[in-house]
Specification:
- The structure is a homotetramer.
- The first copy, chain A, is of the alpha/beta class.
- The first copy, chain A, folds into 2 domains: about 140 residues, Rossmann fold; about 160 residues, 2-Layer Sandwich (Dihydrodipicolinate Reductase, domain 2), CATH 3.30.360.
- In chain A, about 30% of the residues lie in helices and about 20% in strands.
- Chain A has a 7-stranded parallel beta sheet with strand order 3-2-1-4-5-7-6, with helices on one face. A 7-stranded mixed beta sheet of chain A has the order 9-10-8-11-14-13-12.
- In chain A, helix 1 crosses helix 9 and helix 4 runs parallel beside helix 9.
- At the A-C interface, strand 8, strand 9, strand 10, strand 11 and strand 14 of A face strand 8, strand 9, strand 10, strand 11 and strand 14 of C.
């Protein structure tokens, strides 16, 4: 069994990891580290787990764990790893943005299996992608892989309230958000960097803009993104490129017909829809921001690093309704 | 024109008062007092008012105002009034619970027009009823008035998130509340005192229990309450009592057929439905917790105190959808 | 008093018209025509009106009415008007799309007061704009008026479920729509025609594309739209153009700071926010689809046609929460 | 492998069964019968299943299946079984109400494992309990088992929109239900019969009323119920009775602290909370109406009938948020 630990256990992504790992056939959840809740039972915070686990939060880490997931706020993973030394065998999956941009100062691999599967298999350190970045990158990567992103890409995406984390703020207050909608961080969302890095990895000469308007939706889970750009070929040609690019993908599928967010909620899937209008290719992409956009993908990466089938423990029943 | 002031201008009930008073034909909104937002424009906090008012929050009160509405937290009105002396002519409408229970220490009149209309007309100080108290009291008052509450009353009510105020808490976080439901303060909600006081005012020998389970609903506005008790007469007899009791009510109506919460949202109305099952009379009651349950009723009380038609400025268009 | 009639009284836009006209100080709601509900009380269908009106639906029209609002499905207004002859003095406001495109076959004026105020004042027949068309056109009209739409405009907008009408369908089923999101009619929404006609009226040489992705949101009321295009000037210059263009607008305002949908729900306002990123101007626009996007604008047009202040009867209290 | 079939495959409960059975380690989903969708792919109706199954709907049944689940409307199971003869070995789990009331005319066992586990293990025909009936019965059964239901039980429960099925109606229209709340079928809900039958099975002299007010909530999944009655013992005594009664229950747990609906959404659990106020015991009960209230419990019954661990295939990851 893989002995796994979670660092920063009280937030949404940690909760999802716990839910998945408790049911994972090859994993023993060794410890959940929390400085804010030490000694408390895990099910007192993640209250759906009543009757399923007796785990309590610890304020100490097991340095011999086989894998450790970092669910700390952005900016805190780097500090945590310099303050806490794990054994050489310990693999790290970091869910923050700290190591997503390539740098000579670290050896983290960007954990998007659809792009970097072989590298992930051999990696010890994984930078798990951002949620918007996952939804949007998967929508355009097959184009980049074929050198076909030649003009501006126009992206509009909406995320649920879990995307903002557990902290309380005006825009996560129920009264504010219920039946509301608003754009934020237009053209300047921090995930644009990751998306650009991915596109350039496959399309080296990539120079065009990705115009991205993120929105706050009045739902809890999920991301729905639309992306369009100029594409001179036929729709069938585009579908062929996408089918080919994702032929080995475990969770990313090209679909026909209408697509809506709830098709993927509580699953690790990314569903894509392709349409052609005039000279533009429109790609719609939906994911669960906490699963394929965070904890599900983290476990997918863990599976790959440990030589397991990518889907192990991730055959989740969607909630759909 | 009635010169009106609002004390504690940043919360939900203050916002509703501002919305109503800005449109009230006999009122000039003289000042909105806020210690947290002095100098800020009112529309920067109550952001739907953009384009409708240039008012700013003040940190001083006008002691010569004709009427002052207190929108302070429970427990703070008493202190505010002892720290701030208004002119003799200034009428006070307090939206907190500080003066709702009769006492020899104060001369506030309980501002439920359906019960105390004449007293309100002559009052200088009004204790505006609680939201749950309004919905539930109006559901059972005609029975009390006829000495007919003889066995336990069983009440279940659900309130929207605005009932919890603007402060942030776990149960007002969108992610928690969205698509969720929970009971709280069962049998012990603080409004039970007010309700009991009202019932006893009309039915002096009243001794039975009111069993009340409040619930948190996943909507923003409104209260839906059901109340049942033993009633030996026919349904038509009950309807007759209610019709008679509310024949002069400006906003409380007995309806036929299904009743649902959105029939009253964004209005000052209370709608009641009566049904008989076996030996039990079931009364369903719906109000908007911020209007008939707070700011709308406060203006209704003001209208009565100043000799205006009770409905002045309260012919609000419901949002319904 | 203006004697008003409504044709097709059971739908959402008719309901909103009834709510507004019952409170309009210069209007008597003379009749509400419905072939599906004749003889039924209006408040049995529009159930928030209990206690406010005794009107019943008629299956006959008053041909001498001063103004008649047509709330029939798209395609039915033309037929209705050829089957029913009104008096010469009767003014018509059609809420369908039947007469929105200019044609030699009819003399309807496109009822967007921000663009056609003088024409509307003298008109007898008004084609009331579509909801998406209103939100989007108001977002870009000042640019067109200055000949500044020179490259593609990229529009993404989301509408509430009332936008789909009262008829039942898979995508208006609560279970489907709750916490869901989906794009539809991308690049091909029927309102693109109206928007193009408006832009061309002000910018004669307009030839660029408006790329429009409409979305279904999981809320009941409102439209939130973002539109961006290349704009070489400074942000302040853009703001100046918009302020100038809307200086006489009764309900359209340029705001500063964050903008969200609920700022306009249950009002007749359109709020706009301008931002500049690189060489692009981003305009965010919010309206209530049933009010500024339908019935509120219809009454605004009526006010203009009858020489009233544009705002009469439209000083609606927003629901905000 | 157990060869399983589903009759009536297009509705909500069938969808949930398909989701569970596709992941069940001991089951092969042999066929999904649908007269409305024959030949269509299952994932075209249950659209979250894209990428997970190639099954299509059939309009023929496999009479040799090991187990068949009937997901037909109430009243249709009886007819279906008289029109379609299965092999002697075929076990039937009926999700309708057709066989829930004991009768000499059939040999169906009421499939509430917490009450009838041994009978279920030996049964060939199971009548799967109703959703409200499950939530409410589990809240009061330990009292009945100890002969302690001596006065009226007062029950208030709220269900999500999936409780009303896939058919479209006014009260399942998003615009109606969004942010709304309403009681219906008060004191007369059809599940009262089942509940009474369960209580009487354990407390033979049971004669008191169960006063039940069901409500429509504005969420998709789940039931939240409160039930109270007179109880002369201490709270700890009650907790002891419940703990003892449910000590072998696989999915029903007594919890401490606050309880809310989302703790069980997308799981097969029933969570109970006990509180004492004066002489009354209040029990709060939450389930997912489609799982413990329908399809999850159906699979739990199947597991028992085939000698499997009750939990097999039902260790579902909750969606929680």
């Amino acid at each position: 069994m893989i002995e796994a630990g979670i660092i920063g256990g009280a937030g949404y992504t940690a909760g999802e990891l716990i839910r998945i790992l408790l049911r994972h056939p090859e994993v023993n959840l060794n410890f959940v580290y929390s400085t804010s809740q030490p000694g408390k039972s895990v099910s007192s915070i993640h209250q759906d787990l009543v009757g399923e686990t007796d785990l309590t939060f610890f304020n100490q880490v097991n340095k011999e764990a086989d894998v450790v997931f970092l669910c700390l706020g952005h900016g805190n993973s780097k500090k945590f790893l310099s303050d806490n030394q794990f054994s050489k065998k310990t693999k790290i999956v970091d869910l923050s943005s700290d190591f997503r941009m390539k740098s000579e100062e670290h050896s983290f691999v960007y954990g998007l299996p659809e792009m970097n599967k072989e590298e992930i298999k051999g990696a010890n350190f994984i930078a798990n992608p951002g949620c918007f970045a996952t939804a949007i990158t998967l929508a355009i990567l097959p184009l980049a892989d074929n050198g076909l992103i030649k003009e501006d890409v126009h992206v509009n995406a909406v995320t649920g309230a879990t995307g903002a984390g557990t902290s309380l703020s005006e825009t996560t207050h129920f009264t504010w958000r219920d039946n509301n909608f608003s754009a934020y961080k237009s053209f300047e969302h921090q995930h644009l960097q990751e998306i650009g890095q991915c596109v350039k990895q496959l399309q080296k000469d990539h120079k065009v803009n990705i115009n991205f308007i993120p929105n706050r939706g009045n739902f809890s889970r999920g991301i729905h993104a639309t992306a369009y750009t100029k594409f001179s070929g036929e729709l069938e040609e585009a579908k062929g490129l996408y089918q080919e690019f994702y032929k080995d993908a475990a969770f990313t599928f090209v679909t026909e017909g209408d697509l809506h967010l709830k098709q993927v909620v509580n699953t690790n899937k990314c569903l894509l829809r392709l349409q052609k209008f005039g000279d533009k290719l429109l790609v719609t992409s939906v994911i669960d921001n906490l699963l394929k956009g965070a904890s599900g993908q983290a476990v997918q990466n863990m599976n790959l690093m440990f030589g397991l089938d990518e889907k192990t423990g991730l055959g989740l029943k969607g909630s759909y309704f």
